[in-house]
Amino acid sequence: MTPLSLPIPRETRIVIPRLAQSLLSNKAGVAGLLIVAMMVAVALAADQLAPLDPLRRNLSLKLMPPAWLEGGDLRHLLGTDSQGRDLFSRILFGARTSLAVGVAAVALSSLIGLALGLVAGMAGGKVDLLIMRLIDAMLAIPTMLFMLVVALVAGSGLLPLVVVIAATNWVGAARIVRADVLSVKEMDYVAAARALGARPLGLLLRHILPNTLSSFVVVSTMNVGTVILAESALSFLGFGIQPPDISWGQMLSEGRQYLATSWWVATFPGIAITLTVLGVILLGDWLRDHLDPRLD
Amino acid sequence: MPLFRPTYWSGFILSAGLALASMAGAAAAQTLTIAQGNDILSLDPANHGNNSTESALVNIYEYLVDKDFSQGQLRFTPRLARSWSTEDNVRWTFKLRDDVLWHNGDRFTAADVKFTIERAQQDKKLINASKFRRIKSVEAPDDTTVVIETDRPDTLLLHYFVGNGAGILPKAAFEKAGGKEEFFKKPVGTGPYVFEQWIKSDQVILSRNPRWWGGTPKWDKVVIRSIPETTTRVAELLTGGVDIAVNIPPEDIARLNDNKGTRAITFDIARNIALHVRTGKDRVTGDPKLREAIDLAIDRDAIVKQVLEGHGKPTRGFFPPAIPGFAPDLNTNIRFDPERAKALLKEAGFDGRKRPAIKISTPSGRYVKDREIVEAVGGYLEDVGFRVQVEVLDWTVYNSRLAGDGFGELYLWGMGSYTDASSIFVQDFKRHYDWSDPAFEDLARKAGNAKTEAERIALSQQAQKIVAEQRVRIGLLLPQSIYGVSDRVVYDGRFDEMIAAEDVGRP
Amino acid sequence: MTKRSPLRALLQFVPVLYIVSLVVFVLVYLTGDPSALLIPEDASEADRLALITAWGLDQPWYTQYLHYMANILSGDFGVSYRYGTDALPVVLERIPATLTLTAGGLVVAILIALPTGIFAALRRNSLPDFAISAVTVLGKAMPNFWVGIMLILIFGVWLRLVPVSGSGGFAHLILPAMTLGTGFAAELTKLIRSSLLEVMGQDYIRTARAKGVPETLVVLRHGLRNALIPALTMTSLHAIALLGGALVTETVFSWPGLGQLVVQAVYVKDMAVIQIAVFVITIMALTINLATDALYRLIDPRLRH
Exposed, middle or buried, C125 (CB in 10 Å: 0-12/13-18/19+)? Predict the structure, then answer.
């Protein structure tokens, strides 16, 4: 949601050993990495971990509290929802959709941003101006409004949702990549390579791309958190993931009317979202700190 | 263009003051605050198609006649018209009250009624432009007499004078304002409450009409708030912010009753929940056997009990008993037979490995437990061998999808606010369901020309049976409405879901 | 400082506004025919066609667009389908509520971030420091509507401290402003903390200490000044994002701002209202940008040239 305000360093490539060392000295970063790793593992192994079919509904078991409360049942560890479906199993499977949307939307928006940023930076002139105006226009339209309109066109569901979020989220990546390309272009060795007759494409692949990668990684990581939150906001507004697909945003949005009477229906998916976004933010923060020479 | 016109701020600040005043407890005894689920769409009675908008407008404008369901059957009672008569159901004579004043002090006359009807007929941009389409001419021979002629015999004429678009507007004030835009900035009606202010997406504020012909209205002030989020609406009621809150989920009933100072009320309403079925040959639901299987697979009793917590009745039909012309057999004789449904699927060539795919669309939060009902239906259909996809849409999107016929095989529809079962003929079955049936069309034609009430009722009952037997619509249940009510007020709810402030008493 | 540069900025916004209007128009057009929402379902086909003609919806999209642009240039911003009245006042009357809520959200964020950021920096790497970062990041990681509903349940229903919803007086502003403010507070706290930390190692701190001035005071003075410019940048970006982006919070709290208006307008394809709302938001964003620039110059004289 927030366009990056501070310039991201156009620094070196990622050096793995240094990265690991830095990570170990940063507890929050470790925590973030652990959370994200756990969520990814849960998403991948949801089939094996889930004790029950997340779609299996049983109206006579509806709104059953978590196992440790009165009226709970060990078979439904976190209780059941308004259709009597097992919340624990739904959360495990929800991880899959929520993360998939997060990763896919970010990958797509990063690709769009990368492509437009590179083109703008490399081509310069009128093309650059046009892309910059487009970016200005995108920044001027409120993000949620734009998402809503695109969602009306694209419809609801998994794939449209990814497209909708990607269509609104590429701006940050595009600006950073463009800025990086422009500054790298002026560096001595690139100028030298060009003087020696290197072809633009080769130049791009060999010199410019690796240099923009670090800031690009930071932006993309942070974006995953934004996307997961955006998905829940879209669910709230009625444009989220459709059943039988399960996502945390959808569960939270559907469960919100039971918050006062059956708190667990919305609270557990809410915790799942918060924890995951927290993990992503911590990880992203650490990546940024690490890749930012000013804070070294 | 004055971007920061002081009036905008003053409106905002004024509302701040009013809201504070309404918080002030004792003073609030004279103010009635009602929380609806959405903002009113318009102050123009002829330019909205929305129940909650009408519910607010009935306090400002009045109908010629009132619809009264309090005896369990529809009766028309006098309002602005003292009496009415017809001999042939073509030419109608209404005698009007002579003691009614508009909010601006003008006298209400027959010319206003004539104006209201003709304005709706002439302004094609009005949503209810077709409301009075059967009326051929309106005459006002004197100030208290209106003579109306329809194109053919029409036993439903009185029904046109209630509901959306039926509020009577003042000819002189409207024309003096120089157009609808100006007039509806400060509209004038004859009702017990006078329009004060509309802060869009927030509240409508009305004040007592001291010159109302029906006596002194009960409340000094009526505030109708728009609170779309259910949790927020319930919270406002619990904390005394509002006196009546509509559309309370069944789960919250106990909470409202346990809370000191609030209670939940439940009552029957003019609404039914049904699955509407697209029967085109390009869909699996084009096969009557599969449609029957859908009908038989659904355990309506369990849905009413579990999802609505008992606040409704199962039905295969489309109208509650208070509506003239409802078909009684469709509310009994309800079969739940999953084994037969499975057999039907097999007969239709689906052996279990190949499963017929069905998409069911539902709005979320428009009708009580709409999404949950559809999810439960989806589960029952899965149980007998369908492959089900449930599509949940925001109401406004849903509505536009409906109008554009953008749904899959089944969609949930909660028809309501009707006053007669002949409304079964209103929808374009060909366009919405890709369905036509000569017998049904014949009935529709005859109903439009019915000479007597009894004839019309018989025709619409036969039509309901055809629709139910062919499963073009599969009736599910007749829901009750659930409101939260503060102990500061006395209110039992109304069958047509209109909240007239005059119906709300003080203990 | 000459007067040319704000004017120039304004001129640069013309093409941006133009692209925005075209993009919004095309997207809304693609969502389909609004006529479906404008008539009751029992209307006849003839009534439907009459309505479509009356609104000019039978024209091809480029004709509609040209017509629309021509009207705008002559000062006519069109009629709202939903309200049946001029669209411009429909949008303008939402501005006070939107500005109030935006300001409220920013104030809450600053009120949280300033003390906690300072505290965290002075007690860096202590348990409280860690707790503060954890809580502020948590505020950012929670979905907005969830925070809003929880605040209603806790402060409205349970503790009965504040009104639950609506746009009444100051008290009504508290919960929605808190909902909007918590996310931003996290970022601001972090910024203030790191700005202070950066100053702590500097030479002049040592000089000041040698002169006998209390260290905390020096750190605060220089650190906060150091934080001012980036904090301003961040705040103005957030203010812009909140102008039209608070729609979820506005819905939860029934706050009658631009966000709710725009959501409703998008749902019913109310083209004129969407367009004007986007224009108005864009213009307000521009104003905030210009004001921010002016503030930069005020704070740091070096930027005046």
Answer: exposed
Strand B135-142 and strand B75-78: the pairing is: unpaired
Instruction: Give helix B395-403 / helix C258-267 axis angle, nearest 10°.
Output: 20
Cα maximum dimension of chain B: 75
Q: For chain C, where are the alpha helices, taking DSSP H only? A: 4-30, 35-38, 45-55, 61-73, 87-92, 95-122, 127-141, 144-151, 170-200, 203-210, 215-245, 247-252, 258-267, 271-299
Pair C25, A149: CB distance under 8 Å = no
Structure tokens at A167: 């269509």
**Cβ distance B265 to B482 under 8 Å?**
yes
Contact C108/A at CB under 8 A:
no
**SS3 at position A8:** coil
Which H helix or E strand runs over B258?
helix B253-258
Please list every residue in chain A whose beta carbon sits closer than 8 Å to the beta carbon of residue C243: 142
Task: Chain C: give the shortest CA distance to residue A55, in Å.
Answer: 24
- Asked if residue C262 lies in contact with residue C271, where contact means CB atoms within 8 angstroms, the answer is no
Q: Indicate the pairing of strand B312-314 with strand B473-486.
A: antiparallel
Nearest CA in chain B to C160: B239
Q: Would you list the DSSP string of B397-447?
A: HHHHHHHTT---SEEEE--BS-S-GGGGGTS-HHHHHS---HHHHHHHHHH
C61 touches chain A (CB under 8 A): no
User: Which of A144-148, A241-245, B84-88, C301-305 is modeled with the greatest confidence?
Assistant: B84-88
Complex ipTM: 0.82
Preceding amide of A244 cis, omega within 30: yes
Window A:47-106, CB contacts with B under 8 Å: 57, 59-60, 62-63, 82-83
Choose the mutation target among A36, A145, A281 for the interface with C, i.e. most C CBs under 10 Å. Answer: A145
Identity of the amino acid at B27: A
Q: Is the pLDDT of residue C36 over 90?
A: no
- Give residue B145's pLDDT: 96
Alpha helices for chain A (secondary structure H): 16-24, 27-44, 46-49, 87-123, 125-140, 143-154, 158-185, 188-195, 200-203, 209-236, 248-255, 264-291
Nearest CA-CA partner of C24 in C276, C292, C275: C275
pTM (predicted TM-score) = 0.86
**Beta-bridge mates of residue B262:** B486
Residues 188-227 of chain C with CB under 8 A from chain A are: 194
Q: Which run of H or E residues covers position B208?
A: strand B203-208
Burial annotation B361-371 (CB, 10 A radius, 16+ → b, else e): bbbbbbbbbbb
From CA A212, how far away is CA A214, in angstroms rounded? 6
Mark yes or no for CB contact B392/A243 under 8 Å. yes
CB-nearest partner of C27 from A2, A153, A252: A153
List of chain B residues whose C-beta atoms are within 8 Å of the C-beta of residue C255: 202
Position C29 pLDDT exceeds 60: yes
Total Cβ atoms within 10 A of residue B186: 15
CA distance B219 to chain A (A): 32
Q: What is the pLDDT of residues B121-173, one digit of tens each?
A: 998 778 888 889 899 999 999 999 999 999 988 999 999 999 989 999 999 99
Residues on chain B touching A62 (C-beta within 8 angstroms): 306
**Per-residue pLDDT tens over the stretch C50-95:** 777 777 777 787 888 888 788 877 878 888 877 878 888 889 989 9
Mean pLDDT of A23-37: 82
Q: Do B49 and C152 touch (CB under 8 A)?
A: no
Q: What is the set of domains in chain A, with CATH numbers?
A: 43-295 (1.10.3720.10)
Phi, psi of B505 (to 5 degrees): -105, 175
Q: Please tell me which chains touch C, using 3 or more CB pairs under 8 Å as the contact test.
A: A, B
Contact B375 A243 (CB under 8 A): yes
Nearest to C164 among B18, B239, B404 (CB): B239
